[in-house]
UniProtKB/TrEMBL annotation:
This is Lycopene cyclase. Gene3D superfamilies: FAD/NAD(P)-binding domain. The lineage of its organism: Bacteria, Pseudomonadati, Pseudomonadota, Gammaproteobacteria, OMG group. InterPro entries: FAD/NAD-bd_sf.
Amino acid sequence: MTSFQSTNVIVGAGLSGLMLSECLINRGEEVALIGPSDTRVQTICTWRRKDEPSQYADHVINSWDQWQFSFGDHEQTHFGNCFIYEALDGQSLKKALELRLARSSSFARIVEPVEHSRQIDNGFEITTKSARYTAANLFDSRPPEFASNTLAQQFFGIVVPTKCLREKLTHPKLMDFTLPQRFDNALAFTYILPLTDDTTLIEATLFARSQVPYEQLRDMAVEWLTANTDRDFNDDIILYDESGCLPMGDVIPRFAGNPIGLASGSARPCSGYALSGLEKQLRRLTQQNGYSAVSNTPYSKLSAWMDNIFLRVLNRDPRIGESIFSAMTHGLSGDRFAGFMTDNFTGIDALRLIATLPKSPFIRAVLKNDN
Ligand SMILES: Cc1cc2nc3c(=O)[nH]c(=O)nc-3n(C[C@H](O)[C@H](O)[C@H](O)COP(=O)(O)OP(=O)(O)OC[C@H]3O[C@@H](n4cnc5c(N)ncnc54)[C@H](O)[C@@H]3O)c2cc1C
């Protein structure tokens, strides 16, 4: 077996592995990135301040300064004065990062999966089928285990031609509760994104204590489409699909070294949105020049406290989520909602948010920690 050495080894070539590689290379360090090329389709959305230029300009699919919610009995539209909701093509972003990194002489790329990794004297040992690597620093982005009280946010999205839809959406519908709930102890809704003039993403999303077969979420997305089209459904309508499962709550890293990305809690517990958390973790690494900074939670104590209570409520009864989101989206302006979702909010904003929420489930959750 051949042996190699590098200052930094990063396991997993998803977004966090690639973005961390670029960060370290830009600092003049040597990096070996190990893991199969990640060619998964990923539509990655995030709120961004209008006055901050997007660092992903080449990969923006679309952006909107309005977003909407459909609850059983009413609709709610948010207007962003300071924030936009931006959809990125994660697949093209990953490809561009791979190409940029390949130009650096300090970068080594190994596309085999890692079989074992462990701490040794003075560093780490990582093995693939054909080689053994040693490194002073190891960063690992392989998917973590979910803690026992962590909800799973599971989703399956289908992309269809917009012309199939009876009514063309002009901005995203972040939560649509018009389909009946169908999963036990879970909150299901549809997320609809008018990606381009010609294509629309319809994503069935579930907040639940355990996962369901992906086919059931696909069926739900198809049901939403069927309810919103005049055409007969046929599988050929689906241009492509995407799916995933994100942690809503604590994660337990499974491997040696510094966990990164989803494995280090980059996903916001109350929403599963992960990109802005990952960006914050990477900025810390640059500023503090410390390797473990990249594994620390990117979220403020205030948002951690709010998310913890919210998740306790949701864990007791996921279905209550609809009334909570209804109250929250009704009581907050678009900017305040986006500020909360991106962890850009103050104690006063938190009080304003708490004032919008139904009180009794939260009081029960605060008094009785039954996670
Ligand atoms: C379809 C989809 C849509 C999403 N949408 C949003 C969104 O709208 N907004 C948002 O903020 N976030 C979104 N996310 C979350 C997004 O995944 C994260 O922001 C981002 O992908 C960072 O993930 P990661 O690199 O930490 O982990 P992952 O993406 O899980 O990457 C882990 C990597 O580890 C690799 N790996 C696994 N086993 C091995 C092994 N043995 N050896 C080597 N490598 C291995 C995998 O191949 C993978 O590339 C979405 C995720 C998915 C999947």
